[in-house]
Write a structure and sequence with these properties.
single chain, alpha+beta, Leucine-rich Repeat Variant, Pdz3 Domain, 3 domains, 6-stranded antiparallel beta sheet, 14 strands, 28% helix
Length: 296
């Protein structure tokens, strides 16, 4: 079923690139129109490749998803097949018995991931897509060999609404295990039934705990505080924690120690280690604190 736009183009004799015209229909509102456009682009083959690559930049997630799928099909057809070579019997790990050549391909573009599984002998392949928006889609062939597509707003909804398909193709919340191939949705792959998702991957060593940052006792008095409290230039430091020196509280402003004006952090540290009299501003009021030496 051609859309109104395509009919108008034909009526006016516009010489629009057929591939570009069909690409526009990949995001059509009607499902049948999207399927028609996909089939026509598939028939165009290599000639549709430039328009499909440009479609990957579309703002429409449906257009990007269908264009990506068609480009994957084109790439698979163009990939040269290696010549058959005679080899001796090869070792097949446990769990892969009867599943020769099972493969998984994973591609992620703009947060949208596609998992293409080619299973072992005599089983149809499948394509599973997870978009960054949360939507998922399964493409597969039924028992009569017809291509089918089912969608769901989230992976959880898919597992609930299409439980039979999920069980048939080994789709779970963690990944897919089907036909001797396994892939997890966090990007890790493994092959063979019963093998862990991270089979064959080296686990990173746990990071060493970060060293605790030293806690400072004082910092220079900021210009705003100095002007608001009328503290002369070059005088006073701000206390950053309770107990920075005996008797001091957080947010005190130290002006003098044992009668010596305090002009900087280094001086405050040196004098506070032995001083017994602290002149401070506390809650806007000037106070003198006397500390017994036994407190040191």
């Amino acid at each position: 079923m051609l859309t109104t736009m395509l009919l108008a183009a034909l009526a006016t004799g516009q010489q629009e690139d057929p591939a570009a015209a069909w690409v526009k229909q990949l995001g059509a509102e009607a499902y049948v129109d999207r399927e028609k456009a996909t089939d026509e682009l598939r028939k165009l083959g290599k000639a549709a490749e430039p328009a499909l690559k440009k479609a990957l930049e579309s703002q429409d997630a449906e257009v990007r998803r269908r264009a990506q799928s068609l480009l994957e099909e084109l790439a698979a057809k163009e990939k040269p097949q290696p010549p058959e070579q005679r080899r001796g019997p090869r070792f097949v790990p446990p769990g892969l018995q009867g599943f020769k050549g099972a493969t998984v391909r994973v591609q992620t573009i703009n947060g949208d991931s596609t998992y293409v599984i080619t299973p072992g002998e005599h089983l149809p392949g499948l394509t599973f897509r997870k978009w960054a928006s949360g939507k998922v889609e399964l493409e597969y062939r039924d028992d009569q060999g017809e291509k089918k597509t089912v969608e769901a707003a989230t992976l959880e909804a898919f597992l609930k609404d299409h439980a039979a398909l999920a069980e048939k193709f080994g789709i779970t919340g963690a990944g897919i295990a089907y036909g001797g191939a396994r892939v997890s949705f966090d990007g890790r792959t493994a092959f063979g039934g019963g093998l862990p998702w991270d089979f064959g991957r080296r686990r990173p060593k746990p990071a060493a705990p970060a060293a605790a940052e030293p806690v400072e006792d004082f910092e220079p008095l900021g210009e705003v505080l100095r002007s608001q409290l009328d503290v002369p230039e070059g005088r006073g430091v701000l206390v950053l924690r309770d107990g920075a020196a005996p008797g001091l509280l957080k947010h005190d402003i130290v002006l003098e120690i044992d009668g010596h004006p305090v002009s900087g952090v280094a001086e405050a540290k040196k004098l506070s280690s032995k001083g017994v009299t602290f002149t401070v501003l506390r809650k806007g009021k000037r106070e003198t604190l006397k500390v017994e030496r036994k407190d040191f």
